[in-house]
Amino acid sequence: MSELVIQDVWKEYGDQIVLENVSLTVASRAFVALVGPSGCGKSTFLRCFNRMHDLYPGNRYEGTIVLQPDNTNLLEKAVDPIEVRMRIGMVFQKPNPFPKSIYENVAYGLRIRGVRSTLRRQVGANHRMLSTYVNVLRGHGLVIDERGIRLIEDAGRVVRELGTPWTNLLAELEVASRDTQGQIAVLSVEPDHEKHRVHITGESRDLPLALAYVRRLQSSRALRYPMLDSHEVRADDAQRPVRFAMTAEWSGLP
After folding, report:
1. Residue 9 DSSP SS3
2. Is residue 116 part of a domain?
3. Cystine design at 209: which of 55, 155, 204, 227 (Cβ 3.0–4.6 Å)?
């Protein structure tokens, strides 16, 4: 039985055609690999499946992507893209968390489905259990391998992130994004508790906008001395956005 039927999918950015009459049938429980050189449209094709192109202006689809068992054409304008994304998940080559705490990223899916999670208590309990487990093993003279140590360290980091004061920082980042016409997407926010700094990665339409974003954050109350560390043009994306990284001192970091 076919789980996914793609017919004559056409995708373009302005005058540039990226996908031209692509058709594919995927059977239920099948594994499918898309292979091709960088920039040939693989990611653009996959992004059609959960309507990620809707986030950009000038977006236009043609063709159909029909998902079973309810025979839904995912590209129909009447179909809610949020509902589509709840049904079709994506794991990217690099992590792209929401500009929120680890806790809020994990809880987000449950929140939008109306689930009242006890994640905070569970994470804390799991960390205590891991620490106790390690102490017991060490007390019996057993050696913890590197993977086990990394797991424990990650659990400790998650617990520490839960107490990080994100609200003011995220508000500042959102205001700065609005001041640059909303053309900045914050991809990750990583605090360095030891150095009281924060590392931010984002994506902008072009380099001048990225620089304007960093300059705007220089007037932030939460951040001091924001600096652009690096940038690169996403050659694999037809719109060629700029991926950038910056650091700043975070005065509110405990």
Report:
1. strand
2. yes
3. 204
Within 13 Å of residue 79, how many CA atoms lie on the same side as its CB?
21
C-alpha 190 chain-centroid distance: 13
Strands (E) across the chain are located at 2-13, 16-27, 61-67, 72-73, 184-192, 197-204, 223-233, 242-250
Is it the case that residue 203 has pLDDT exceeding 90? no
Residue where a domain stops, chosen among 53, 87, 121: 87
Measured between alpha carbons, how far is residue 25 from residues 2, 30, 32, 96 in Å? 7, 10, 10, 29
Looking at the fold, whether 201 and 235 belong to one and the same domain comes out as yes
CATH of the domain at 62: 3.40.50.300
- Total number of domains constituting the chain: 3
Beta pairing class for 184-192 and 197-204: antiparallel
Label residue 93 by pLDDT band (50, 70, 90): low
- Of 119, 144, 162, the last residue of a domain is 162
**pLDDT confidence of 125, banded at 50, 70, 90?**
low
Residue where the block lists tokens 């054409």: 73
pLDDT of residue 102: 59
- In terms of residue numbers, what domain contains 234? 166-250
- What mean pLDDT is predicted for residues 100-105? 63
Question: Residue 9 domain-assigned?
Answer: yes
